[in-house]
Design goal:
This protein has 3 helices and 2 strands, in the order H-H-H-E-E. The protein is of the alpha+beta class and 77 residues long. The N and C termini lie far apart (30 Å).
Length: 77
């Protein structure tokens, strides 16, 4: 979670307006589980009843240690 607020602050500086209330993370409950992280988070979000048809999900997956991100944009069907 060290970079959580730093990432948010940089997104604000870059005019990317996604409020923290729209973020979903399970890092504090499952920890860093490497390449499985995004699949575990998506499964947990899917079962959270927070999603509605048409919602957009922006995945941002950090690559450990290199400060780069993989991204994907999904739409709830």
């Amino acid at each position: 979670m060290y970079f959580y607020n730093l990432l948010y602050d940089e997104m604000v500086l870059q005019d990317v307006k996604i409020g923290l209330d729209k973020w979903f993370t399970n890092l504090t409950s499952v920890g860093n589980i490497g390449s499985a992280s995004i699949f575990v988070a998506l499964e947990e979000l899917f079962h959270s009843d927070k999603l509605q048809k048409g919602d957009k999900i922006l995945l941002m997956v950090p690559e450990s240690g290199r400060f780069s991100f993989g991204t994907a944009l999904l739409t709830v069907a």
